[in-house]
Amino acid sequence: MGTTEPHKFPIQISTKGSLIHQVRRRILPPDEVKHEVPVPIAPAPLVRFVTAPAPDLALTSSISAPAESYLPYSTKHYRKRKLEAEQAGEFRRQYNKKLPYRSCNKCFEDRNTGGHKQYYGNWWCPFKSSESYEEWIDALKLKGYGKKKPNEKS
């Protein structure tokens, strides 16, 4: 047993709303307001642009002359970098499409030929489908595909 008394913790009283009445803002009259000291502005440095002659386009370049007088900066910059890379002899693999047409996901043939038909983003394949085109459309309409009603929101 100790001889000292146990510590008593003070109970906090809520101070909610007490600060509102104590804060007073002082609004200075116009003559006491500090005026800003004007900072002298130095004249802008003189910049002269010199136009350099256009680089000679290599005959092996795949870049053709622009048909329009205005080209976006990004296009000009891309063509410039491509030309510099070609002149430096850097090799870049050319993009080749796998197929020259859009293929059907069911029969892997060209969708633009062979009787393939589309209804609101869905493709009907005459070679792999077991139902007729009209039956297929009716089934899609039952699922809710088709034109939206005028009072429907997206």
Question: Can you give a write-up of this model?
Answer:
A hairpin with a 2-residue loop joins β1 and β2 (122-124). With 154 residues, the protein is mainly α. The protein has a two-stranded antiparallel ribbon with strand order 1-2. The protein is flat, with a radius of gyration of 39 Å. It has two helices and two strands; from the N terminus they run αββα. Helices cover 18% and strands 4% of the residues. It has a domain at 101-147.
Keywords:
154 residues; mainly alpha; 2 helices; flat
**Discrete helix count:** 2
Sheet-strand content, in percent, reads under 5%
Give the % helix: 10-25%
Low-confidence stretches: none
Radius of gyration: 39 Å
Strand order across the largest sheet? 1-2
Cα distance, first to last residue?
A: 77 Å
**What about the largest sheet?**
2 strands, antiparallel
Structural class: mainly alpha
Overall mean pLDDT score?
78
Count of extended strands: 2
The H-and-E topology, N to C, reads as HEEH
Can you tell me the overall shape?
A: flat
Compile the SSE list and pairings.
Elements: H1 73-88, E1 117-119, E2 122-124, H2 133-143
Antiparallel strand pairs: 1-2
TL;DR?
Helix content is 18%, strand content 4%.
